[in-house]
Amino acid sequence: MIAFTKAHAYGNDFLYAAASDLAGADLAMWARRLCDRHRGVGADGLILYTLTARGATMTLLNADGSPSELSGNGLRGLAAIVAREWRRAGRLDRHDIVVETTAGPKRLVLEEVSGASYLFVAEMGQPTGIVERRFDVLGETLTATVMAVGNPQCVVLGPLPDDARFARLGPALEHHPAFPDRTNVEFAVVEATDRVRIRIWERGVGPTESSGTGSCAAAVAAASHGGASRDVEVVAPGGTQRVIWSEAGITLTGWAEILADGTFCAQL
User: Fold this and answer.
1) 167-183 per-residue burial string, b: 16 or more CB within 10 A, e: under 16
2) CB-CB contact of 212 with 122 (8 Å)
3) CATH topology of domain 128-247
4) 55-62 and 96-101 beta bridge pairing
5) Share of the chain above pLDDT 70, in %
6) Cα separation, 175 vs 182, whole angstroms
7) What are the structural domain ranges in the chain?
């Protein structure tokens, strides 16, 4: 039996399990089983964690079992779990949480608590490798901004695609030969200098309601090539997060909510 916690940030949901509980297991297989929305608990990803004095460590697997370097929303969900543990222990006077990720340490500052919801400002670091590229995809030529925000991102600026076009272009870009490790994909439109709206096709998952790193990438692309400011609200189907891109790096502000604790009883 596997004990888990489920949390989400704007509908981007994750399962969290102690890394020690799955030591030596086939993690990809467990991720696929636990994240299955019909035969498992259901989630966009599985995060294995270990609590530390400063916060936690995390390892992320997508719903298809593939590894991922980072998730901004998954990061905040884990920080919420840490904050809840500190709250129970009477230590919530500590507002800084550090999570060690595959993409390096990430610092989060707890701003507010409301029931099982926690508002954080997360320091996401600087984007790297920002470049505009043209891609031939399914008979179209698309211009996209490519970068890494701890994980690979491909942002297509312009009118948001309808459902049918989104379902075609999302996986085609994710699996484009230019991305040997695949990529996350955002379609983004600049609605105002301080507001960007996005649709997300997440690597190893498909459509998601929200994405923390995707919101960061969309904000960077919009500021670099879309006329947006460096302080924007990024509106995803699941809700709105604030992204600020400065000389110190990117900060991502948003909520995470703990939904449930449980035990997965079925065997593989």
Assistant:
1) eebbebbbebeebeebb
2) yes
3) Diaminopimelate Epimerase; Chain A, domain 1 (3.10.310)
4) parallel
5) 99
6) 5
7) 2-125+254-264, 128-247
- Other Cβ atoms closer than 10 A to 11: 14
CA distances from 251 to 18, 117, 166, 247 (A): 27, 19, 28, 11
Cβ contact 170:206 at 8 Å: yes
**In angstroms, what CA-CA distances link 31 with 43, 158, 260?**
9, 34, 18
pTM metric for this prediction: 0.96
Q: Among all chains, which residue has been given the structure tokens 């609605």?
A: 191
Question: What CATH fold (topology level) applies to the domain 2-125+254-264?
Answer: Diaminopimelate Epimerase; Chain A, domain 1 (3.10.310)
- Is residue 230's pLDDT more than 90? yes
Rounded Cα–Cα distance for residues 118 and 137 (Å): 40
**Token code pair at residue 108:** 């989060």
| pLDDT, tens only, 62-94 | 999 999 999 999 999 999 999 999 989 887 666
Backbone angles phi, psi at 40, to 5 degrees: -130, -155
Asked if 14 and 77 count as a contact pair (C-beta separation under 8 A), the reply is yes
Q: What is the pLDDT of residues 123-155, one digit of tens each?
A: 999 999 999 999 999 999 999 999 999 999 999
Q: What single-letter amino acid sits at 97? A: I
Structure tokens at 57: 């460590």
pLDDT at 267 over 90: no
